[in-house]
TrEMBL record:
Residues 131-146 have a biased composition (Polar residues). This is Mediator complex subunit 20. Residues 128-147 are annotated as: Disordered.
Amino acid sequence: MGFSGLARWINAPSSGLDLVSENIANNYNGQTIGKWQLSVRSYRSTLSTIPGFDIPAERTMAALTMGENVFVLLEDPLAPTRADLLAHIATLDPSQPGPDPDHYRSTFLTLRPPGALEQLLTQLKGKWVPSRQSGADSSQRGSSGSHVRIEGRVWHIGSDWVVRAGTVHLGGGTHSTKGMLLEAEYKPLPVLHSQTADSASELLSNLLTAILPNVRDAKVVAVTISESQWEEVLWDREQEQDGQVEDKDEEIVDDIFVSGDRDMPAARKGDWIGLERDRRSAFLIIGALKSEGIC
């Protein structure tokens, strides 16, 4: 797994997936290797219904299922971001203890297996209900209105590239298609530091643009966030409190023909590998859909 980029084809036609597939097969000799299937459910809290508990804004939660993992983005608009809190603490007297909130505005979790979140909410009688889709017709509203599906395919292009493309479907109804999502993964690189403010990669952007069919008036936008936003998302309270884990005692090797791995780059938390790649991909997808009011 490697560094990935995401794009949103907002006004893709219903035949968009077939057009992308034909373009990849005919012009890039891409080979279909499987299906790309994701699902997203969105919820909102109902804390304001508790007698004597008055809050100006409810919390929201989006859960994206990818394979055997569920990535959950919980947002509390009344809580501070970690960056805002650090900026506020910098203005305070350092001799006095600073504020220590129990949570920040965004919390990003990884759960398994699929369905565990719903079971937990039911067992705890959590104050959460499915959100209503904005932009959906009345036939889509209700308990199933919070369900979004991404259904598509996965291709290999050469040995270095993996491309995923899928159509975004709402819960049902005659107007259930909401464009497409396209993702390109460059396997040789676990991380790519861009010089642009939004951390967009020209390498990935060029490929995503190339695999799009030549459709007139296509509205395509790149889905990116800055490195500072990634730090906010990937921040770990327990890791910060515990400090850095001490390195294991180095093994002494007497063999002069054996070299250690001291100078080899170690995998870092920010690298796009394994579960971390899926977490970053899920966060970008949730952010793209939330920005359009789809989930």
